[in-house]
Amino acid sequence: MATCLFCEIAQRRRPAEVVLDDPQALAFLDIYPSARGHTLVIPRAHAEYLGELDDALIGPLFQAVKRVTELLQRALGAQGFTVGLNHGRAAGQHVPHLHVHIIPRYAGDRGTGVQGVVRSAPDEPLAQVAAAVRRSAEPRPS
Ligand code: AMP
Ligand code: ZN
User: Has this prediction a pTM greater than 0.90?
Assistant: First the structure.
């Protein structure tokens, strides 16, 4: 595989402001922070998307997310967090190594909730959307 920026950080071959160093996950400050303490949490193993990450590594990744929110609350007085993944190019993912953004929120910071990221609600009834999703979970005829 071509060199991956976040694999290099995970292997400590590229500098980063690491705030949590776990066996399966690493957390470091985003180099272009959206807010004070903006942190990225990554699995040490390379995966571009959640679907590529071994199920056994999902838990440790989100345990690290939980731990980082506690650290940021204590160290920086964060009053809330926006936690999210830009998952795929259409969603704004630029670095092709899965990463969870933790953006500390402070009263009066004038940010929005995650619903503000996109406004493209369909005209379609919810029941029709839900039925399509449920059908996709059914086994396909072979
Ligand atoms: P995304 O658009 O979700 O792929 O976000 C990638 C994030 O990685 C951006 O917010 C960048 O500021 C951040 N970033 C890029 N290079 C580095 C780096 N060397 N160290 C820390 N953060 C980085
Ligand atoms: Zn990688």
Answer: yes
